[in-house]
Design brief:
- It is a single chain.
- By secondary structure, the protein is α/β, with parallel strands linked by helices.
- It is built from 9 helices and 9 strands.
- The strands form 2 sheets. Strands 5-4-3-6-7-8-9 form a 7-stranded mixed beta sheet. It has a two-stranded antiparallel ribbon with strand order 1-2.
- Helix 1 packs parallel to helix 2 and helix 5 packs across helix 7.
- The longest helix is centred in the first third of the chain and has 19 residues.
- The two termini are 33 Å apart.
- Bound molecules: S-adenosyl-L-homocysteine (SAH).
- The site of S-adenosyl-L-homocysteine has 25 residues, from strand 2, helix 7 and strand 4.
């Protein structure tokens, strides 16, 4: 950052903090002015996306303290993202329409997809792409699943049920998006993630949404969550060569499990527990997921 001659050192960072609303969290004071501005803008954009309605406009005189002329007003990306909550409803509706055109019919699932703001789950730089039908990176070589596949898997999980599912387990929380959608269609949702920083990221992504019926766990989902089962629905967001045995055992009788299985070539597998000792399986469409891995990381 370029400090002005005789300028009190703290002023510029304080100004950035004001704009971003993230006092003490950005390191703008330690990098070049340009980078500082980008970092602050990203932070500001991120914050503004979530809080646009409550975020006051910076007072006109806030630039008086900022030496760098480029700090005069929030740069365009801030404004663009600040408006996103308003725009995003329309864009999200369009996303749901596309998902419906691709064949998802379950009205409860479509309503759930419309209710959850997908842009909350992406880093600010990717938020404008939140409503395209693609998987996107969330860090640690993992991805947020494509909207269509999220909707499709939940539709298969519900199997045309009239009402809500009762208790659902998700393996692979990632950024928490699918867990939030599941929480719209089930009474209780448990979600496990094996990468600790992602588990924590999901926690902070979900916090502003205040979803009371969703519990996140850090651990190896291949072992399931026996203390919370049996589950009416189990959904895997990562592909193993087959479904781990522990998960079969944690299905309620009449319960359903949907999982991507395979290596390079993957398909969705549906398993229904028909009796205490009987499971029926069906192979559905091709898909592409990150691998299911044992153990924990971080
Ligand atoms: N549900 C996410 C998708 C995340 S990608 C969404 O809403 O888009 C799949 C996730 O599964 C990754 O975060 C990966 O770390 C996780 N994963 C892989 N193997 C796992 C395991 N054994 N237990 C728990 N999570 C696992």
């Amino acid at each position: 950052m370029s400090e002005g001659k005789g300028q009190p050192k703290k002023r510029f960072p304080l100004t950035l903090d004001f704009v971003s609303g993230l006092a003490g969290r950005n390191k703008a004071g330690t990098t070049a002015a340009q980078n500082s501005r980008q970092t602050a803008t990203r932070n500001a954009a991120h914050h503004a996306t979530r809080n646009a309605v409550h975020h006051p406009a910076p007072p006109k005189d806030y630039v008086v303290h900022a030496k760098a002329p480029e700090m005069k007003r929030p740069s365009p990306p801030v404004d663009k993202l600040a408006n996103m909550p308003l725009v995003s409803e329309a864009v999200r509706k369009a996303m749901v329409q596309r998902v419906a055109q691709q064949g998802v019919q379950d009205p409860l699932v479509l309503a759930a997809m419309e209710a959850v703001p997908r842009h909350y789950f992406l880093e600010p730089g990717l938020a404008p792409q939140a409503y395209i039908d693609a998987s996107l990176p969330i860090g640690y070589h993992q991805t947020i699943s494509q909207p269509y596949i999220v909707a499709r898997m939940i539709e298969v999980l519900r199997g045309g049920a009239e009402g809500r599912l009762q208790r659902v387990l998700e393996i692979g929380t990632g950024c928490g998006y699918q867990a939030a959608v599941l929480a719209q269609v089930a009474d209780e949702v448990y979600s496990i993630e094996r990468i600790r920083p992602l588990h924590e990221q999901a926690r902070s992504n979900l916090r502003p949404l205040r979803i009371p019926n969703l519990r996140l766990h850090y651990g190896d989902g291949m072992l399931g969550l026996p203390q919370c089962g049996p589950f009416d629905g189990i959904i895997l967001a990562a592909a193993g060569l087959d479904v781990p045995q522990a998960l079969f055992d944690q299905m309620a009788i009449g319960g359903r499990l949907v999982a991507p299985v395979g290596g390079q070539q993957q398909r969705l597998k549906l398993v229904v527990r028909t009796k205490r000792n009987e499971w029926m399986a069906d192979m559905l469409e091709a898909c592409h997921f990150v691998p299911l891995r044992p153990g924990t990381f971080g």
